[in-house]
Amino acid sequence: MTDVTPSQHTIAGTVLTMPVRVRTAHQHTAMFAVDADAAQRMIDYSGLRVCRFGRGRRRAMVVLMLMRYEDTDLGQYYEYGTNVMVNPPDDPDAGGMKALQSAGAFVHHLPVDQPFTLEAGRTIWGYPKVMADFVVRGADSPASVRGGRTFGFDVTIDGKFVLAMDFAPGLPIPGALAARPQVHSTYSCLDGVVRETPGRMVLSGVRYRPGGVHLRLGEHPYAAELASLGLPRRALVSSSAANVDMTFSDARIVGER
User: Fold this and answer.
1) Mean pLDDT of successive 10-residue segments in the chain (257 residues)?
2) Where are the domains of the chain?
3) Cα 202 to Cα 187: distance, rounded to the nearest angstrom
4) Quick check: bond before 19 cis, omega within 30?
5) Which CATH superfamily groups domain 23-153+164-214+233-256?
6) 8 A C-beta contact, residue 61 and residue 51
7) Using CA atoms, how far apart are residues 134 and 143, in angstroms rounded to an integer?
8) CB atoms < 10 A from the CB of 210, how many?
9) pTM of full prediction above 0.90
10) According to the model, what pLDDT value does residue 9 have?
11) SS3 128
């Protein structure tokens, strides 16, 4: 058997050996069903196709999320993401609820608050990371998440308010259901290069509730894009995880624009 040497990347003088590991992170997400045509227009630059579902396949799923990375190979940082669920490039016309369950997440917005993860994200995976400022309301520690306390955050880029989200406490999900390993792909398009990044995650301390989030949009262009989807409107579901353990492998190029 031939040994395969793990790939390495040097970022700001630090050598990262793949896969990159996240050992401790806290997560808050909200899922919104939006107009599929509007979502497609927003990500047309990628060449990917949104995963359509619902009557006439007129809806698409958009996931807004905040991650607080605590113990990772990339350091500690906050990260906000706008993710649109898309079909894999080799099956662009898939659709329906079954296809949605296996769809990948196209990362459209990804502000962060630390320069190291910004450089690593853009260089290794082609993620559209930009620098931002975060204001957090309420603790997002594992104990607070497990305790079901209200949590909120604001994102500002270059002095312009992007959005604010406030999460109501959710109901705990049995650990046996939430802790199943999830294998997923994320997609990105940076400088015309479309990449797919495989990942694996295990969640613990998970809470869900219907709705459960209040979204306010600001004056930044990112906010205008979200408004074009019909947001804010009531989320289908919101969730939190007291911890997310995950790995990210090398990206592979799946297209060029």
Assistant:
1) 79 97 97 98 98 96 98 98 96 87 95 98 98 88 55 97 95 81 93 97 95 97 98 96 95 95
2) 23-153+164-214+233-256
3) 20
4) yes
5) Acetoacetate decarboxylase-like (2.40.400.10)
6) yes
7) 21
8) 11
9) yes
10) 98
11) coil
